[in-house]
Amino acid sequence: MPFIKTHQPCERCGSSDAASLNEDGSTFCFSCNEYFKPDSTSEVHQPDTVTDLKVYQRNKKMDNYTAPSYGNSTSFVEITDRKISLATAKKFGVKCTVVNGEIVNHHYPYYNGHELAATKIRKPDKNFAWSGSAKETGLFGENLFKAGGKFITLTEGECDAMAAYELMGSKWPAVSIKSGAHGGVRDVKENLEYLESFDSVVINFDNDKQGKEAAIEVAKLLTPGKAKIMRLPEDYKDANDMLRQGRHAAYVSCFWDSKVYTPSGVLNLSDQLTAYQELRNNKKLAIPYPWFGLNRKLEGLRSGELVTLTGGTGLGKSSVTREIEHWLIDHTEDNVGVIALEENWSRTAEGIMAVEANAKLHLDSVKAQHTDEQLDGYFKKVFMGENEGRVWIHAHHGVNNIDDIFSKLRYMIIGLDCKWIVVDHLHMLVLSTLENDERKAIDGIMHRLRTLVEETGCGMILVSHLRRVEGNRGHENGIETGLSHLRGSQSIAQLSDCVISLERNQQSEDAIEASTTKVRVLKSRYTGEVGVACSLMYEQGSGRLREMMFEDPDELTAEMEL
What would the pLDDT profile of 225-249 be if each residue is shown by its tens digit? Predict the structure, then answer.
């Protein structure tokens, strides 16, 4: 009975296109493998079409069984259209309908235990029909191979199972799922105990996108280490394709080369030599910091790393970030993105220009000492000319939403190709969330920042605050900092590649001590070096930070191998 409509929805399982309509109004669904009578959505089994027989290899009666053939007789023949031998066809119990010397239909027997329960008929137009109910049947070929053993090959179709069996010298078990790639997970779940009884399950699904994706989903169902995914050469669609072209040796090679499936992100290092060689030769983008002592500890600022800069209130975090921002603009050709949540964009721009001018341009009294032409000159020098289109600043206009901020971060990195990002500061990000628990908010933000850095490979500098400490002396008195002083959550330290802390006794009566900031490395995942890296003197006249030693960072650039 031919189908008059295909790719119809199934009211029982909800599939949008797996049902086919027969001439008499009945329907068969290839997703749930059920038959429905005309004008009804209820399931109808056809027991009169089911012949209860033992496996023909055991009771020798299979040759006397005639599978349903829609009016034509069936017999065991060499399946010439698929290059499958007569011996293999008999082994799997597959008969064919032959008309005028040509094979018209294939008849694939399916068993429930040792009883023949259904027959799947493959027509020349590659449509399928079922006689009997396939619901309780096992995998195609399962009845032939007892549970337990070293290997079993799992394919996407019946002809592929027979082809795999024949290609492997008719020695190893080979079975097929019942309903193609889309039904693979369901079929394997229903027969999981049987497949689990083998030491290895070699999954040989079709060599297309659907087959490759289905193979991974099926592999996830099996005990870790049991599933192997077989990859065929690109020129071959499936096992039967290789059989038809006589590629026995190539198929055997692919079989033994099958790789044990591991979840995404879990690697077998034995397979990673080439990848390691490529990574070794492709070093991360890196530049020196503006200060020699910090480079001695950290060996530069690297892309793909999250660096947290922390310190007490008023201890120079903004001054340090502006020095670094100007340094990145002046010493690289990379694009730089800045998200400063406590100030507007013009204040951020003037802070970077102040480094160029060696003057506190944010002060009106200092700005008044410069002509408009001078101020425009600083702006053009830093942000225009050779630096045209290189510096991007988040203009938040006082409105901040955490998802909006992350959207802009991603746009800066991917859309604007910013290799270096400065975020000032973490706790303003916390305020932009709806989370009442500061620790949970920080954990979520740090995870998102870490993921963004890993995904994009950008270098990110994150400014963070310190918590208040017990005792009479606080951070404004220059106490030594530690990772435990980071405010809100230990995920700040855990997810950062590097943590740099600023210490200064701003209340000291000694003018030099009050103006000198110790730069302490609290964590360095790359070098492992920690401790005081250098001391920076704040120049009251220029607002610049000068390292208190003779080495010139410019000389270090040529010397450092990054």
Answer: 899 999 999 889 999 999 999 999 9
Euclidean distance between CA atoms 308 and 314, whole angstroms: 17
- Are 392 and 336 in contact by the 8 Å Cβ rule? The answer is yes
Architecture label for domain 46-260: 3-Layer(aba) Sandwich (3.40)
Chain mean position to CA 385: 40
Which positions ≥6 away from 190 have C-beta within 8 Å? 138
Average pLDDT value for residue range 115-123: 90
Contact 158, 106 (CB under 8 A): yes
Those residues with Cβ within 8 angstroms of residue 197's Cβ, 6 or more apart along the chain or in another chain: 147, 148, 149
Query: Which residue in 469, 529, 63 sits closest to 298, CA to CA?
Result: 529
As a CATH number, domain 300-347+399-554 is 3.40.50.300
* Angstrom distances, CA of residue 454 to CA of 72, 145, 269, 302: 63, 48, 20, 12
> In which region does residue 316 sit, left (phi positive, over 0), alpha (psi from -120 to 50) or beta (all else)?
left
Please state the domain extents for the chain. 1-44, 46-260, 300-347+399-554
Q: What residues are paired with 97 via a beta bridge?
A: 74, 105
Report d(CA 196, CA 192) in Å as an integer: 6
| Secondary structure of residue 77 in the 3-state scheme | coil
Amino acid at 455: E
Q: Rounded CA gap, 342 and 340, in Å?
A: 6
First to last CA, the chain: 73
Residue 46 pLDDT: 35
Which amino acid would we find at residue 257?
D
Residue 441's CB is within 10 A of a number of other CB atoms, namely 22
The DSSP secondary-structure symbol of 494 reads H
- Among 553, 536, 533, CA closest to 544: 536
Instruction: Give the residue among 284, 279, 256 at the shortest CA–CA distance from 269.
Output: 279
**Class (C level, CATH) for 1-44:** mainly beta
Instruction: Return the closest-CA partner of residue 243 out of 344, 163, 183, 308.
Output: 163
Asked if 505 and 513 count as a contact pair (C-beta separation under 8 A), the reply is yes
- Report how far Cα 67 is from the mean position of its chain's Cα atoms: 48
Residue 366 has pLDDT above 90, yes or no: yes
- Diameter of the chain by CA atoms? 110
Strand-pair partners of 203: 154, 229
- Tokens describing residue 560: 């450092």
Q: Comparing C-alpha atoms, which of 176, 175, 190, 238 is closest to residue 211?
A: 238
φ, ψ of residue 2 in degrees (nearest 5): -75, 155
Share of the chain above pLDDT 90, in %: 55
